[in-house]
Amino acid sequence: MNVQERLEQSAFSSDGATLLIDGEWRRARSGETLDSLNPATLEIVGEVAAGNAEDVDDAVRAARVAFDERRWTKLPPPLRAKILHAIADRIEAAVDELAVNEVRENGMPLPMARGTILGGAQAFRYFAGWIGKIHGQTGEVSHGEQFFGYTTKEPIGVAALIVPWNGPFMMACHKVAPALAAGCTVVLKPAEDTSLNTLNLARITLEAGVPPGVLNVVTGLGSVVGAALVEHPDVDKVSFTGSTPVGRQIVRAAAGNFKRVTLELGGKSPVIVLDDADLAMTVPGVLNGIMANAGQACVAGSRLYAQRGIYDKLIQAVSDAAAKLIVGNGLHEGTQMGPVISQKQFDRIMGYVESGVSEGAELVTGGKRHGDAGFFIEPTILSRAPADATVVREEIFGPVLSAMPFDDLEWAIQQANNSRYGLAGGVYTSSLEKAHTVARAVKAGNFWINCHSVQDFWLPFGGYKESGWGRERGEMGLEAFLETKSVVARLY
Ligand code: NAP
Ligand code: MG
Predict the structure, then answer these.
(1) How far is the centre of ligand 1, averaged over its atoms, from the C-alpha of 30 (Å)?
(2) Does residue 277 sit in the same domain as residue 393?
(3) Angle at CA 72, nearest 5°, toward 70 and 77?
(4) Global pTM?
């Protein structure tokens, strides 16, 4: 089957009926729709319902009723686990179609899309394994032996899951899988730029046996649908991935009924390269650390601090490799870097490049639009940016690396921590001692030694400082959808 045939077979039969509420596909109450654009070709790939607060209310009510009726949690744990595995099976079986859809909406290269779709399936397998293993503790109670105490873990309730556009299918899976494993019911809000493939995920969960009302989807604008969800008094939990400013709004809105909140926000992750680093390992590590997904990754290694003895050689090698990256439509064979998501992001990133140069950085490679259609930006490297330059402080979320030389490791560590973010960091060195010294010193929730962005489901993921609240994945990721109850019984 060629790409076009695959697309025709897999395209979501979209007539704007993209709200999933209580197992039924509906149009928005207002009848309004939004177009979804291919960022490589600027073609419209589909339309989604522009939900509003009333649609959100319907979806939350459906999730509430499904939760209170225990439609999901009354199923025996082995059956719930089987359903999560069935979701993973269906994702894996449809990986080619889902990956093509992901490229059409997000722009990433097809092999990467396949990888992220399969990563979504793995999230369901990992969390399926937790179902039936969620447990509390028992213990003596100091008031006397006639007392007996134990704890149970219970699902928090209705969870609003708000996902961004930079890995839309996978990020939805990363939230839906632990929420379902914990026994929550869900209202999922995809990013307006990338909603269509998320609808395929929702369809798959229904086909795999998730009861109606357990997973609901409301498409539409963040400022409308997202805002209504986080303010809704009947939502018990918000799990959000996106920008720090919206994260801050969510915290304020959640205060209404003290929603439990997990936030995965931005980053400005430092990478420290010491003179003794192995260049063959470091060059691709640094390059992919920033250019993967056109720099639209929360853990992007966007600040490079390289020791003076290796600096020139490293910048030369990374720039040469960056200039050779094949930029283009993610569906074309051989493409290594796709477009950025939207005109808004394109303008924002180009503005940062200009500011870097005007604030004193040297443009080593890139810095321009690539081609004449689509939101393509050349892989860009800025060298010797002043420590307080905007490009060193702010998250760019594009294919732009800011590099700085250093002499003293202490200074580099201090600079690495001189950020309001603390999502990730990395070090390249052949010294075991230095590797672990830097790993210990950098204030970040994720850290890599001689590699970048290598992740696994059992490893908790999240940030220090303004990069977020709480952790996703692993046991902590499950815990984020659970409450703990302490019970004391008097036996006689
Ligand atoms: P964003 O506005 O934070 O979007 C993330 C999600 O939140 C989307 O689903 C969005 O919906 C929704 N949203 C927007 N406003 C909301 C509100 N008031 N209440 C509840 N939900 C709301 O991010 P963006 O504007 O798309 O991207 C801007 C910057 O955010 C990027 O340049 C990057 O720095 C950062 N970002 C970080 C990550 C990450 O992985 N940590 C991911 C994406 C973006 P709509 O899409 O419909 O607006
Ligand atoms: Mg937005």
Answers:
(1) 23
(2) yes
(3) 115
(4) 0.96
